[in-house]
Amino acid sequence: MTAVDLAAPVELPVLGSLSPSRAGDFMTCPLLFRFRTIDRLPQAPSSAATRGTVVHGVLERLFDLPAAGRTLAAAADLLRPEWERLREEQPEVGGLFADEAELQTWLTSAEKLLEGYFTLEDPTRLEPAERERLVQVVLPGGLRLRGIVDRLDVAPSGDVRVVDYKTGRAPGEMFEGKALFQMKFYALVLWRTTGRVPRLLQLMYLGDREVLRYVPDESDLLATERKLLALWEAIERATQLKQFAPRPSKLCSWCDHQALCPSFGGTPPPFPDVVPGPDVPLPHQAAAVEAAAAREAAAAREAAAAGDAAAREAAGALEPAAARAAAPEG
Ligand code: SF4
């Protein structure tokens, strides 16, 4: 694996910001987008979403272990510490389980997902280039695209594979496009920041033990960019008019905000006087964005330190041996 520089300069003025989930919200239901992004209504934690977060955390940390130690048993051992860590960061998830027995049943269901992962690939044979990587780019019109990629694998040839773990069910054929939209979003950001189209987009459905692969090309990514720009225009128009219409669908069963939705006899709260700016992450995303940004800063510091060491080494190689021997250790 070779390193790839994914640092995304954000020098253009940022007028708006979209992540795959915000874009997905607006496409699913404009009112849902408003509730989550503009009104910032809190969402109750669910055991399924929390399990997804914990399993993602375990799969990230698994690659901290030496290759030979990346076994299912080792991954299962990481589950409880990962749960404890999340409970510390987000105390509200602590109320999901009435007692230790319920928690244990839930941890066992999370272990099943890890078992699914190990049937799909062998982590002892992989060295990911990036995990939980924050990627972002500002398009010329001022729209920032930002998201956190689960994993990036980079081949010696420089080819990039974008990997995303899914703990929900694999989509039927009709909904594959929707599932791939998120991956094309990431591919577009990577293409715009590195100049290289990722070779492969890979969605791994751990519950169904299925892998969905897609080879993107430039025309795909240009179409995704056009779609996102049109989406942003529609969001701006809706914000100016303060009109975000409900769009009822099967997904309403999972919506936390039915009580405020006109399609269910509710009334939305008054439209806020101040719409949160593009740099304010959603409450439930803030911790993940912060953690990814901290990892990015740490990686940049490491790279700078490595660069300094290499530069010192190179300078040292040019010095006469006697001078190097006489130099104090630093
Ligand atoms: S209940 Fe359905 S229509 Fe209403 S906001 Fe939620 S997703 Fe939209």
Describe the 3D structure:
The protein has 330 residues and is an alpha/beta fold. It folds into two domains: 1-41 and 130-283, Lambda Exonuclease, Chain A, CATH 3.90.320; 44-127. It has nine helices and six strands; from the N terminus they run βαααααβββαββααα. Strands 1, 2, 3, 4, 5 and 6 form a six-stranded mixed β-sheet that branches. Helix 3 packs across helix 5. The protein is globular. The model is unreliable at 1-5 and 306-330 (pLDDT under 50). The structure holds iron/sulfur cluster. Iron/sulfur cluster binds at residues 29, 31-32, 246-248, 251-252, 255, 257-258, 261, 263-264. Residues 29, 31-32, 246-248, 251-252, 255, 257-258, 261, 263-264 line the site of iron/sulfur cluster.
> In terms of per-residue confidence, which ranges show pLDDT below 50 for 5 or more consecutive residues?
1-5, 306-330
Order of helices and strands: EHHHHHEEEHEEHHH
The global form is globular
- Output the CATH class name of the largest domain: Alpha Beta
Number of strand segments: 6
Q: Give the N-to-C terminal Cα separation.
A: 31 Å
Strand fraction equals 5-15%
Give a short account of the largest sheet. 6 strands, mixed
Bound small molecules, deduplicated: iron/sulfur cluster
Q: Over all CA atoms, what is the radius of gyration?
A: 22 Å
pLDDT averaged residue by residue: 84
Helicity range: 40-55%
Stated plainly, the CATH topology of the largest domain is called: Lambda Exonuclease, Chain A
